[in-house]
């Protein structure tokens, strides 16, 4: 499916408004912090398992 002709192109200022950017930062923070914690613990456990 194609986007309507009135839709702004991705990467334009209209598309990435301040509210949209704030929501994006909040969403990635909510996802990123637990993800980083999980990756850290996985690496820590793998080092204990394989590192001795």
Q: What can you tell me about this protein's structure?
A:
It is a single chain. This protein has 52 residues and is an all-alpha fold. It has 1 helix and no strands. It has one helix at 18-51. The N and C termini lie far apart (54 Å). The model has no long low-confidence stretch (mean pLDDT 84).
Structure annotation, total helices: 1
How far apart the termini lie comes to 54 Å
Runs in which pLDDT lies below 50 for 5 or more consecutive residues are none
- Specify the structural class: mainly alpha
Radius of gyration: 19 Å
Residue share in helix: 55-70%
Q: Note the beta-strand portion.
A: under 5%
- Quick one: overall form? elongated
Question: How many strands, what sense, and barrel or not for the largest sheet?
Answer: none
Return the average pLDDT rounded to an integer: 84
Task: Give, in order, the helices and strands.
Answer: H
Q: How many beta-strand elements?
A: 0
Report a brief summary of the structure.
The protein is mainly alpha-helical and 52 residues long.
Overview features:
52 residues; mainly alpha
Question: Helices, strands, pairings?
Answer:
Layout: H1 18-51
């Amino acid at each position: 499916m194609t986007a309507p002709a009135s839709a702004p192109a991705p990467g334009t200022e209209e598309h990435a408004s301040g509210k949209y950017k704030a929501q994006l930062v909040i969403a990635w923070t909510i996802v990123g912090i637990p993800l980083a914690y999980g990756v850290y613990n996985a690496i820590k456990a793998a080092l204990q398992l394989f590192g001795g």
